[in-house]
Amino acid sequence: MAATAEQKYAFNKLQKRIRREAGKAIEQFGMIEAGDKIMVCLSGGKDSYTLLDTLLYLQRVAPIQFELVAVNLDQKQPGFPEHVLPEYLKDLGVAYEIVEEDTYSIVKDKIPEGKTTCSLCSRLRRGILYKTANRLGATKIALGHHRDDMIETLFLNMFHGGKLKSMPPKLVSDNGEHVVIRPLAFCREKDIARYAEAMAFPIIPCNLCGSQENLQRKHIKQMLNDWDKRFPGRIESLFTAMQNVTPSHLADASLFDFKAVEATGVADENGDTAFDAPPFTETKKGPQSDPVNTIKITQIA
Predict the structure, then answer these.
(1) Helices marked H in 231-297 — which ranges?
(2) Domain count, the chain
(3) Does a structural domain hold residue 110?
(4) Residue pLDDT, tens place only, 202-259
(5) Are 169 and 143 in contact (CB under 8 A)?
(6) Which of 17, 136, 212, 261 is the one with CA 20 to 30 A from 100?
(7) Residue 124 belongs to a domain
(8) Is the pTM of this model over 0.70?
(9) Pairing of strands 170-172, 37-41
(10) Residue 29's Cα: distance from chain center in Å?
């Protein structure tokens, strides 16, 4: 059935928002530089498809030149549709490589039946991808994590790890050899889900290995989804807070020298406001409440 004018308008608006937010993240965090060769990790899920699609667009319009190579790790899970990604990538005309490593058998051998396999699987997958990046001469590794992943990770670390720590938009890999980037850092998961459905990406389910979903992350996601429905604007405020950190108003002595604090007799706007009434901004419904409407369209600088 042909799309209506209203549906086309909604799709174009959604696509522009995702591309604009990705461009903003790339520019703000210096994710891509001229001459980069970016290895785009493609799992077959909605996030990585959207990531590749967006980077291909930015590659066409950016004022700098950079390469893209899509890489999928075939971990030999039973039922994995090996033909889907090669066919999709051939049709796109993008450079790609399918890396075949039987991590499934290793995980099943090491993890007791019924236990979550995600942790070991993730470590094995990460090591293989790092080796692949070295072999391909990639200067950056791009992952499809989005804004909601970052917020969920913040709460997971607070609730279960005792750390005020999230998933950064850009970092050095744990082996110190690679720069990992997350161009979808400013994109909302619900936007990505709508976009993937509209684009009819050939989604490969992520439960082929039979592993249980990380229950802690699942509970956090449910909590955040509930907040998003009941308190419009709260998730946006949380993400903004992650970008506005005041170390002097936390309690980490390694980030701020509390021992050196002395009264100076000079007013300080960052002084003790613990007993002041918190600022409150009413969330308005309608187009004006959409934070992306205030973001300028950016290009990679």
Answers:
(1) 234-242
(2) 1
(3) yes
(4) 999 876 555 555 678 889 999 999 999 999 999 999 999 999 999 999 999 999 999 9
(5) no
(6) 212
(7) yes
(8) yes
(9) unpaired
(10) 13
